[in-house]
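Entry:
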Amino acid sequence: MSTSPIGVAVIGAGMAGKAHAAAYRNAPSLYESILPEVRLVSIADAYAPAGEAAAKRFGYSRFDTSWQAIAEADDVDVVSVVVANHLHREIVEGLLAAGKHVLCEKPLSDTLEDARAMAAAADNASTIARIGLTFRRSPGIAYIRDLVQSGRLGKVLHVSIRYWTDYASDPTAAISWRYKGPAGSGALADVGSHASYLAEFLAGPAVEVSGGRFSTVIPQRPKPLGVVSGHGHAAVSNDYEAVENDDYATFSLGFASGAAGTIEVSRVAAGHPNDLQIEVFCENGAATFDQSRPSEISLHLSDGPEAERGYRRVLLGNPHPYIAGGMPIDVSGVGFGQNEGFLFQARAFLEEVAGLDESVSLPRNAGFDEGVHNMELLAAVAESASNRGAAVTIPASALAIH
């Protein structure tokens, strides 16, 4: 393992950018293995006040106002790219060409063409390029996967995933990049990308989608008077712009194993700020995960006397994935949430960059090839929706879902 210091930067000081910045700050304190010194160098944002505030808040040495400044910086080795999807390609390709290790937020881009070009650039780079699929780091979801793969739950029969959010439920919320782009670049790309990779994480490779349906229920939004960051609201004008993409999406999945699945996502589900719910039904039982109660799962096992069967609450703690040594208090009942997923993700990336052997490291982050596959699945949903729900085959993939 290398002992050279690792200089870290984050491009994007919005909601998810702050999560990445905080994760790098705290990642060295997780687990027993010792990373090289991690230097928090810069947070870059085109809106200087946001970059400056984030750098001060999370203890980074400076702030910059362009990705080019990060690419040219000799003291930066690792960069998280956490900006609008349509900006990913130019920034990622520039960083890789400059010899930086890159962790890119999902989805990989806003078009499949750009995503494939980014994967090609990653293949030709001398550095590491990974995509953040953060919910794979949720201890509850990872534990359900362990139960499936160990045979305890057994073969998946069908899976249902619902990811409802309400950040766009207010029709007076300002227009931003999130509401622009082709069909499928709205709620489907934003939260449906999470739901789709989790479906494959639990049930294996998907081979077909059908029943695709999109709906844009708020057709226009007011222009902001200032900067819009993350899902936050801003003062708005009396001028309106059209919403171009989907507020709601739903589709069905067919898996290579013969299993089936359904996914439903929304950004206009009032009263559901961040509601991810997963149900997995298997040969030997079933399990559920509810993001509003992330430190537990519900588990039903079909063995034992029939009179004693039924769902039981399992509090997650030391025996479960990521928790032992990964939390300051790593026992059941203490609680944790979505922010910790960014911690585990950053730690895994730093371990890989430092050269820590995979056998003693956290599971690696996904490569850009998985990011392309995820976008191929989403593109198939868009094609299905444009053809009144017709079945669409997902391009064959040799990927192993990590």
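The chain has a mean pLDDT of 95.
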